[in-house]
Amino acid sequence: MADDPVTHDPTTDNPVTHDRVPALEVREINKYYGGVHALADVSFRAYAGEIVGLVGDNGAGKSTLIKVISGAHEPDAGEIYVDGVRHRWRSPQDAIEAGIETLYQDSGLAPDLTIGSNIFLGREKMRRGLLGRLGFVDQRAMEREALDDLKRVGISVPLSKRTVAELSGGQRQAVAIGRAISWARKVILLDEPTNNIGARQAIEVLDVMRSARAQGLAVIFISHTLPHVLDVTDRIVVMRLGRVVRDAPTTDFTAENLLSTITGLDELRPPSTSPA
Amino acid sequence: MAVLANQQMVLVVVLIALVAFFWSRNHLFISSSEIGNLLTDFSGLALLSVGQMYVIVSGGIDLSVGSTVGVSGILGAFVMQDMLNAHYPQVEVLLVGTVICAAVGAAVGAINALMITKARLAPFVATLVMLSAGAGLSLVFTGGAPVGLDSTAIIFSASGVGPFSYPAIIIIVMVVILGFYLHASRYGRYTFAIGSNSFAARAAGINVQRHLASIYVLSGTLAGLTGMFFYLRLGSGAPTSGQDMELTAIAAVVIGGTSLFGGSGRMSGTVLGAFVLTVVTDGLIFINIQPTWNQVVVGAFIFFAAALQALRLSSGGLARLLRSGPITEEVSGGR
Description:
The complex is a heterodimer. By secondary structure, chain A is of the alpha/beta class. Chain A has a domain at about 25-110 and about 185-265: Rossmann fold, CATH 3.40.50. Helix content of chain A is about 30%, strand content about 25%. Chain A has helices at about 60-70, 90-95, 115-120, 130-135, 140-150, 170-185, 200-215, 225-230, 255-265, and strands at about 25-35, 35-45, 50-55, 75-80, 85, 100-105, 185-190, 220, 235-240, 245-250. Chain A is globular. Chain A starts with about 25 loop residues before the first strand and ends in a 13-residue tail after the last helix. Chain B is an all-alpha fold. Chain B has a domain at about 40-240. Chain B has a two-stranded antiparallel sheet. In chain B, a hairpin with a 2-residue loop joins strand 1 (about 160) and strand 2. In chain B, helix 2 crosses helix 8 (about 185-195). At the A-B interface, helix 2, helix 6 and helix 7 of A face helix 7, helix 8, helix 9 and helix 13 of B.
């Protein structure tokens, strides 16, 4: 990702036009739950150095889509490309190895483990020498580096030796986001990262997302909080009833027409195309 | 963590009180021979408790271990009897017997693992199946009578260094290793993570089903080795060996402060729990109280441990409430 050109224009804070390979592309994803068509021909792209908002009403299929992209669920049809290479996930591990990190809505942390253990879960630092080969972990190094990793992405938590259960909701969310961003190499999926936290922390989470974008990640931001989406994203993909109904630069949207696109009111009257 | 340590402090106090009580009733309770007995009896429970600890930390339960002790000891005894009759050297016989017992235990564990990870049965149900099947098979294989009479095994089991019998030494070393392994290895870390939030563990790329499968095989193997331990003590494989011990092992884990919901606990607590239960069982016999009372006392211990845990949970909840203070310290800015 270091050799990817930054596509985010620093002066206007707008993304420049891409004629290159997207960091993530999904094509014609379909997913059924029993008789429910949860995802119907969903396609969209996300480029490196770009924040894409994924919005829609409850049941629009956002979380299902995230689970498909992160390898937690298998799609019934459709293709996933990372940097132009087609992938098929058999498990979340496959997606992680391809450089995609996910922050799930229902927190992806193990509450009984320490912050450091959570940050390094699945990627433990091992002891040197024989003990390492016997499977022993270097807990001290992990606790130390966990704090550094979090700091690097703009998050500071009191003590990495605390268990996650001892943290407040906002702190947990910060750790979860920090974990995802510090490991992500290409794409980061954030499912409602500003839910259940205070207004001020939410603004800080948005800042963390901007710093992830500056690092050249493709950030996919799912949220019901439309002001946040309008504030931080470069492009917005609107889903309704399992379909993508609109995919346009954020500058095309206003608070009103975004809401009407989400609810489907825009189909009753013509959408206002010119932004304010 | 501090409160966790407190439960162990409580256990140490209880242990001292128990020893003092039994000693006051009969001073021979603190004698080298009785201490040796205690350590050996403790060894019989320790491996089962350690295996149960791994299972419970992962969020499951293994009810089959008691039956596995019986089945593995019996099948091991059949083989060892044949070898003794064919005049194989004693050492060889015991080594082969150990391997057979471990293998039978591992096989039972593997069946549990298949039922839990492939057929998706709840651990409680799957291992209940094996508890029942194992107990039945023990009787089918033996007709209810012990298999073999191996006096060298008994002698080996009764000799050792100071109060430590040889089997006790081997088992205590294993317990220490398995304890460190749970708390300091990646394998142990995954076990805690799965018990704490299996969704998070899977999302972190851990192969949850494979890990769970290996835990039930581990628990079964330790039960098989416990079967060998009882063969050594009795000099035969008895269908009654290990009977009801799954409950004592679970009790040791719970008394040691481990949550039955998984994800937390300390092995030192489990070891202490197993030791306290051994002292209670042996002490009651020592001061001539009907052994039937034993289970009542164990029940009382589980009750108090559970009460303590409930207290700890609610005080933990309180501490969490108090700590969720100003938001500024929670996420601090992004540049």
